[in-house]
Amino acid sequence: MGNGVREGQVDSRRQDVEPAVSAHLPPEGTQEKKKVLNSLMSGALAGAVAKTAVAPLDRTKIMFQGESRWLSQNALSLLIYRTYLNEGFWSLWRGNSATMVRVIPYAAIQFCAHEEYKQLLGSYYGFQGKALTPFPRFIAGSLAGTTAAMLTYPLDMVRARMAVTPKEMYSNIVHVFIRISREEGLKTLYRGFTPTILGVIPYAGLSFFTYETLKKLHADHSGKLQPSPPERLLFGACAGLIGQSASYPLDVVRRRMQTAGVMGHTYSSILLTMQEIIREEGLIRGLYKGLSMNWVKGPIAVGISFTTFDLTQILLRKLQHGTNVER
Question: Where is this region: Disordered (predicted)?
């Protein structure tokens, strides 16, 4: 009997302790929801900050890619200056509202999807809780970029149109959708979709792969778990340089197909578009037009994007951890 009483007392104590401990630990489902929400918020902010920072260069690049004649770097600088003189300083950010409408959901989906794909691939390959090996690391990035591009493509089409047309042609984002749908058909909203997906696979795959690999190499050699913000910017810049250089010809093809309706061209397929560009402008001068600008714009944008995402994630986790402690 003595033993029975003691066992009962132990059991009652255990019952008292367990609810007290579990009360401080959020359910697993709640933790997963918070993680997804954090990724979405961090990704949205990362995309908005990065794209706003390089918006003037981005608009000029789209105009540059849409030109069928070769422009030198001096001509490119003059193009920016002429746009400033003719349309004003804020015209350099023309189309940025459309960019924000696209890039915020795009970046939010891409970064969140990347975190989820890393987790799924980690479970599949048996790397749960550890860094992925190179091939799954590349696949996670490619899948994340493809997912985001598929869900937000019409917004990219609208942004391209607003960037290459005078402001009198389209008054706002909704007007672009209405005019394109009425005058050119709904299918036009997906013109250039195939080269976009083909381009985003190496671009997103190599970008995420390079950034994650550089962070891992840094941790292995320095012994520090987290790189500093300047190091993150440098790793992101390298990622952007490699990713955009690899996918650039398809980016040119995509822009030509998107802006064909207002630039006096008719491009029906990727191969025919490439053939026409090469025939009229040459291989390098056509398919790599504006690449030197991308070597400035791309690393800056990707570096800011990755750094903003990581630092926002860290900040949100700290805030939530502090809230949990207070509770």
Answer: 1-31
**Token match 């550890």: residue?**
130
Estimate the crossing angle of helix 73-87 against helix 55-66, to 10 degrees.
110
- CA dist 324 to 25, 42, 144, 278, 320, Å? 8, 20, 31, 60, 6
- The pTM of the full predicted model, rounded to 2 decimals, is 0.75
Residue recorded with tokens 């955009």? 244
d(CA 45, CA 104): 7
Q: Using CA atoms, how far apart are residues 105 and 14, in angstroms rounded to an integer?
A: 47
Q: Please list the helix, strand and coil fractions of the chain in percent, rounded to the nearest 5, in that order.
A: 85, 0, 15
CB 51 within 8 A of CB 58: yes
The encoded tokens of residue 153 equal 């493509």
- Give, as one character, the DSSP assignment of residue 127: -
pLDDT (tens digit per residue) in 240-279: 999 988 898 888 888 888 777 666 666 668 888 888 889 8
The model's pLDDT over 70-96, given as tens digits with 9 standing for 90+, comes to 445 555 566 666 766 676 676 677 767
What are the residues whose beta carbons fall under 8 Å from the beta carbon of 71, sequence distance 6 or more? 64, 79, 289
